[in-house]
Amino acid sequence: MDKSLDEFVTVGKFLAPTEAQIAKGLLEAAGIDCILQGENANNMLALAFRARLKVRQRDEEAAIALLEATEGGLYDAGRGGFDA
């Protein structure tokens, strides 16, 4: 097995920790192992730090496809709100 596929890669960056948590929950619900890095760092200097959502490299394509599929749905993380 290729060990590089187990390394974590960034699939999303978020200014708001809440949006990062929503995206993380979406991936976890789909069975994709993920971590958030720096989700609380942006509380000090919000524009300087973004929370990074990371997945294993082997799950990168599926994670990106899932995150992109939610854009324009009921919740649009890019706009930071509900479309209802």
From TrEMBL:
InterPro entries (UniProt xref): DUF2007, N-reg_PII-like_a/b
A Pfam match: DUF2007
Ranges of residues in domain DUF2007: 17-69
Designated name of the protein: DUF2007 domain-containing protein
